Amino acid sequence: MSQSLNIIIPPPILDENGNYSYSIVTGATDTNLTGVCYKTPDRIIPVVFVPGVMGTNLKAVKQKYKVPGDLWRLDSSNTLLWWLGRGATMRRNLLSPNVTEVDDGGFIDHEDETDNALFPSRRNRYWGEVAWMSYGEFLIWLQGALNDFDSCQGGVRDKLISVDLQADWNETPLTKDEVALSYKYLYPVHACGYNWLDSNAVSAERLKNRITEIKNDYLAKGKKCEKVIIITHSMGGLVARYYSQYLSGEQNILGIVHGVMPSIGAAATYTRMKSGAEGNGVVSHMATTAMGKTETDSITNAIGAKILGENAAEMTAVLSQSPGPLQLLPSVEYGMHWLKFKAGNQICSKPETEPFEDIYSVRGKWWSLCEDHLINPNNTTHNKIQMDKDWESYFSILTEKVQPVINDLQSKYHKNTYAFYSGGDSFLSYGDVKWHAASPLVETKEHMDYILDAPLAVLTDISYTRQTSGVVAYNQESIHFLNTFQMSLPEEPGDGTVPFRSGHIPFDYLKSCLEVSVGHEPAYKDSEKARNFVLRAVVKITQSINETSLAYK
């Protein structure tokens, strides 16, 4: 008759580098003693979150103005209230890539929490760089779902096995083996903010350095770490793509998951420079009414617009000196003829061949992307010499920093890419931008050409209308006209910022993609379906680990 075994499970002892040891103390007469030591994975796959435009906290540097240290802090909506009523001059002076840098001091819930004894604290994983109001809840959820070793049966990954998420391209539910493999690795969730006022090429360099730092830190602790998984929001996707495709980043990336990325640009960049942020004035009220939203939504949007920039003057003062946001302009891939004009029975559209030549670099027209008199609010007298210098600076940024990056990113994606985007009519976006003449005197194409070529009249409204004045020949007479053009409401399905045509990435570049119905800014906190898709994508991407040195033989 065999003797029963005495089983001892010693508690792990963790050293400062995250290495475990086990100590077993036995008695002199113990027999058939078995020690069971639970091994923690020593193979690390860092998950790096890259936020969207305006989603990184910024602080002021080299400032001669008295401003709060947390210049652009997104802990909550209250921390941005300082910007209410600041105007175009203050915004141009403070929100420039030359006098700002990333602020890592943002709010973090339980900032000293490591989430795993092997991980640095949330603060040291740079969660404080990104907007807590937009991403905090998601970061905590994602880290919990990737670190549930004590409750893996019944955890989020376990519950996703065999679940159909109804992806519109390559719907492949998780298998038990795929989830099992994912539990053989550790996934510390890091963040990487960037100065969203600067070029995405510069931000990509910062991402490159951050990923190198993350990998080296784990390697120095004796862990195995070779590649990372990147999760992006909005413009952060452009930063990750540039790093992947142009800074040799692909060799350090296991895969990328994009959320609501403007893959080929967004016409909202044009509308913001012409009318301010979404939610301003009469257009906001009309839009919320048309889409069935509540008056509370309208008020919230209006406050948000006042913070971000409620008219063309406030937005142009910032964006005309900031290559990053300008790199969100529609590219050639976006298509032609998305800027439309209707007056009387005449309709015409732009661009016809190239948006930079036909729209973005055009000076002096009422429909131009950048109105030269709004670039520099410090030039209160509209001194022509100063205006020429300001336009030259804008044109230089446009041609030397903006256009090359937009062109470089065309059709460039990491080979292991997943994406989700928003569709449906709940969050209409500007796909086409339409200007309608309110009081037309247009019966021929020649008349329309005159109107489009006419100078700006009186600046009565820089939120959603423009007035033009000039002279047209009609019935052998010269007729003076004053015409008011009004920007129409957004009409294309999307997320309120990115239209369907840009969020929906061609399937050839993707492993899988999912359509959800969610707003742009809260995409990661308002859609459980999107979060589950992201988690599933992380597990799917992990299967590529077998092509690396971190594979189990």
What layout of secondary structure does this protein have?
Layout: E1 6-8, E2 12-14, E3 20-22, E4 33-35, E5 43-44, E6 47-50, E7 58-60, H1 87-94, E8 100-102, H2 132-145, H3 156-159, H4 176-182, E9 189-191, H5 200-220, E10 224-225, E11 228-233, H6 236-246, E12 253-259, H7 268-275, H8 281-290, H9 295-308, H10 312-319, H11 323-326, E13 339-343, E14 346-350, H12 355-360, H13 372-375, H14 384-408, E15 417-422, E16 433-437, H15 445-453, E17 465-474, E18 477-487, H16 500-503, E19 512-516, H17 528-542
Helix pairs in contact: 1-10, 5-6, 7-10, 8-9
Mean pLDDT: 88
Global structural class: alpha/beta
Beta content comes to 15-25%
Q: How is the biggest beta sheet arranged?
A: 6 strands, parallel
**What is the quaternary state of this protein?**
single chain
Cα radius of gyration in angstroms: 27 Å
N- to C-terminal distance: 39 Å
Number of continuous helical runs:
17
* Order of neighbouring strands in the sheet with most strands: 9-6-11-12-15-19
Helix content, binned percent: 25-40%
- Tell me the total number of β-strands: 19
- Name the poorly predicted regions: 280-300
Question: What is the overall silhouette?
Answer: elongated
